[in-house]
């Protein structure tokens, strides 16, 4: 493995950590309805769990209401139960093959709790990025030990990896502050 391979691997894996953070933050509701909030819900479909998007379409009725249109009539109650049992705290209303999901208004206390969850998700992403930096630096040290690169090359490469880490941490901080602002606005 060469120095450039190590750097490219670290950069792509750090990017994946940021993408994971984005998807995790998208699941945290802000009081407004958006179709992506139900993406992670799994529904029992003929004995196997499948994502909700494979058995129904999710649309926005208004700023506080989602409409879930199931494609098979008998799946209505199953989808309704899956939404109710999810960790989102939603109470769907079944109307045959159409399900309305009203978004309850967030209280100030609930907003603060959600902001704490956002910070926790961000800290987890930062830890993941730092672990990737550590792994890259260890791989560089192994190359020096095996006499494939010089110590000067190792230091330069570690500086590059550190700059990548710093950029990722700044991106994570931006995502966290944007989400917190989104949650705290009434």
Automatic annotation (TrEMBL):
One of its GO terms (biological process) is cytoplasmic translational termination. Residues 22-184 form the Ribosome recycling factor domain. The keyword Transmembrane does not apply. It is found in: Cytoplasm. Pfam families: RRF. Keywords: Cytoplasm, Protein biosynthesis. InterPro entries: Ribosome_recyc_fac, Ribosome_recyc_fac_dom, RRF_sf. GO terms for molecular function: ribosomal large subunit binding. The keyword Nucleus does not apply. One of its GO terms (cellular component) is cytosol. It comes from the Bacteria. Belongs to the RRF family. NCBIfam families: frr. Responsible for the release of ribosomes from messenger RNA at the termination of protein biosynthesis. May increase the efficiency of translation by recycling ribosomes from one round of translation to another. This is Ribosome-recycling factor.
């Amino acid at each position: 493995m060469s120095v450039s391979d190590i750097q490219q691997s670290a950069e792509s894996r750090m990017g994946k950590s940021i993408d994971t953070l984005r998807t995790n933050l998208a699941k945290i509701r802000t009081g407004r309805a958006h179709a992506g909030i139900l993406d992670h819900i799994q529904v029992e479909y003929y004995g196997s769990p499948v994502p909700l998007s494979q058995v129904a379409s999710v649309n926005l009725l208004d700023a506080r209401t989602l409409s879930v249109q199931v494609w098979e009539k008998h799946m209505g109650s199953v989808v309704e139960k899956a939404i109710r049992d999810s960790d989102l705290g939603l109470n769907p209303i079944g109307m045959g093959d159409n399900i309305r999901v009203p978004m309850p208004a967030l209280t100030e206390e609930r907003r603060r709790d959600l902001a704490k969850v956002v910070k926790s998700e961000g800290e987890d992403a930062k830890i993941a990025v730092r672990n990737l930096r550590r792994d890259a630096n260890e791989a560089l040290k192994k190359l020096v030990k095996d006499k494939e690169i010089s110590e000067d090359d190792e230091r330069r490469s570690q500086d590059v990896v550190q700059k990548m880490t710093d950029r990722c941490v700044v991106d994570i901080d931006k995502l966290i502050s944007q989400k917190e602002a989104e949650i705290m606005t009434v």
